[in-house]
Amino acid sequence: MVAQFIASKREHREEEDRRMQELEDHPFHTMVKKATRGGELSSELEGRHKFNIDWSRSLVFILYGGLYQGMAQEFIYNRVLPILGTGTDMKTVARKVAVDMGFISPLICIPTAYIIKGFLIGNTFVQSLANYVDDVVNKGLVFKNWSIFVPVQCITFSIIPEHFRVSFVACISFFWMIILSSILSG
User: Fold this and answer.
1) What is the distance between the alpha carbons of residues 117 and 106, in angstroms, rounded to a whole number?
2) Residue 161: exposed, middle, or buried by beta-carbon count in 10 A (0-12, 13-18, 19+)?
3) Half-sphere exposure of 68 (CA within 13 A, CB side)
4) Residue 186 CB: number of other CB atoms within 10 A?
5) Counting CB atoms within 10 angstroms of each CB, which of 64, 165, 181, 186 has the fewest?
6) How many other C-beta atoms lie within 10 A of the C-beta of residue 116?
7) Cα dihedral angle (140, 143, 147, 153), rounded to 10 degrees?
8) Which pLDDT belongs to residue 19?
9) Torsion of CA 54, 147, 161, 172, to 10 degrees
10) Which of 104, 113, 147, 105 shows the shortest CA–CA distance to 132?
11) DSSP output for the chain
């Protein structure tokens, strides 16, 4: 019985190690998988039949998850934000969180999802941005983002080792993708 427990723990640890290595080695591929699953889970939570996949909706989140969350965040976290400092002291963390929440998220991150969705459904760039502004004003979109990511980014920039930051945020983003999918589908 003890041997089975130890073997089970070892298998679990090896699986976790494999997943972390996959996130680190293949951020784009991993985010594509997470984005697809986020769209499917959001559909399930909204009461849609679990085997009825909305492919255009999933494509939005595959592109968003792969292009922005996979590749752009790698660049932002490892090339841009270190300009603000490389330490984990409170001042450096506050600067990074302020830039991320005050500039990157509301002006780059979230609008990117709206532009991708708009492109896929035939909206113009201007229509897509108008939809974004409408959701910011009428659905509290940015505040919902901040309620999740201000604390997450404080942890990210103060505790999480630099080489795991994109992976950590990618895992948390899975839940944000569900919320964003619900907002975008409305």
Assistant:
1) 16
2) exposed
3) 22
4) 8
5) 186
6) 20
7) 140
8) 64
9) -20
10) 113
11) -HHHHHHHHHHHHHHHHHHHHHHHH-HHHHHHHHHHHHHHHHHHHTT--TT---HHHHHHHHHIIIIIIIIIHHHIIIIIGGGG-SS-SHHHHHHHHHHIIIIIIIIIIHHHHHHHHHHHHT--HHHHHHHHHHHHHHH-HHHHHHHHHHHHHHHHHHTS-GGGHHHHHHHHHHHHHHHHHHHHH-
Q: Which tokens hold the place of 185?
A: 């589908």
The tokens of 9 are what? 């723990």
